[in-house]
Amino acid sequence: MVVRYQGGHNAGHTLVVGQETFALQLVPSGVLYDHIVPVIGNGVVVDPFVLLAEIDMLTRRGIDCSRLRVSGNAHLILPYHQQLDALHERHLGKAKLGTTKRGIGPAYADKSMRLGVRVQDLLDERIFREKIHASLIHTNKVLTKIFNRLPVDADSLADKVLAECLEPLRPYIADTTDLIHDALEADQQILFEGAQATFLDLDHGTYPFVTSSNPTAGGACIGAGVGPRHIDRVLGIAKAYVTRVGAGPFPTELFDQDGDALVDIGREYGTNTGRRRRPGWFDAVMLRHAVRVNSLTDLAITKLDILDSFETIKVCVAYEVDGKRTEKLPYHQSELHRVTPIYEELPGWKQDLSQATKRADLPQAASDYLDLIEQQVGVPVSLVSTGPGRSQFLNWSD
Description:
Radius of gyration: 22 Å
Low-confidence stretches: none
Number of strands: 19
Largest sheet: 5 strands, parallel
Strand content: 15-25%
Helix content: 25-40%
Distance between the termini: 26 Å
Structural class: alpha/beta
Strand order of the largest sheet: 8-6-4-1-9
Mean pLDDT: 94
């Protein structure tokens, strides 16, 4: 199984298989393998229209989606959530968070206020209509009295969702927690697939410039319905440099030609939104913190090949805050906003890595770069990607 455990269609995964490229938003990436059961867990918020469009896209391209299962406990993103998301961002003005306006935050807010509508509610029309009405009592007051917008008609919305989504989604709805535990008891392999990243975590990220769920490893337990003793490996995925989308602190951010080169060569634009990502040098301070928060066992370093043309490569190994050096992430965000990164500079390798398939294929400078990352963060690098293709990686631990 491959189980998506949090987030929504605000985060995309781009998969390159041969000459084909797939941009997925909700369906777990394991759908491309015939032997995998892809699962959308209870911690995900699901826009039913987006999910059905994605299933249709995959089906038209020859991908069998019949194995897909969606948790009945996952919450639905409905059109009024997206409306609220856009209005809140506009209302914040210069203080806006940079959300994708996909309705993620408002859907999770309704979930916390016990006003949410779940996937399983679709299976009982009476309950579904009651919950839509209950949720819109609050939402319509916000729309009309705060944002001066027209109210949403509960019956019309319920009619539309039930007519367009119920029957197409029905075959996929399941008790996914039960399915996952059946797989565990059968000694099957399960990969929990996160979206976003550690510093976008609602609790451990750079609040308020975060997402509305917990993409950290612990979120897999809550968002899929498993206990921590079932997790035996936590693979941290980090680019060979750093990017961020939207607002928020970014100590190693680059505003020069090196930053432009990272964006251009790395094609650093959001899979879903198309927004230009903010680029920066590798930040070992942040990754050390991520190692702790997630209990990482090992690392996968991606996009190493994007650094092929650089004369000099920098790694942030510490910060200077108010004249003092620290190798730990500042607890207070005001300090994080004013840190100065302390860099260790390494020579670039000036060599094409796209054909490297084993450790011996890498030039010494690239090996030195990966060695420094291991030394700085304290966990081993196990995988290194040298291109977007499925076969463009090497086992660094070999």
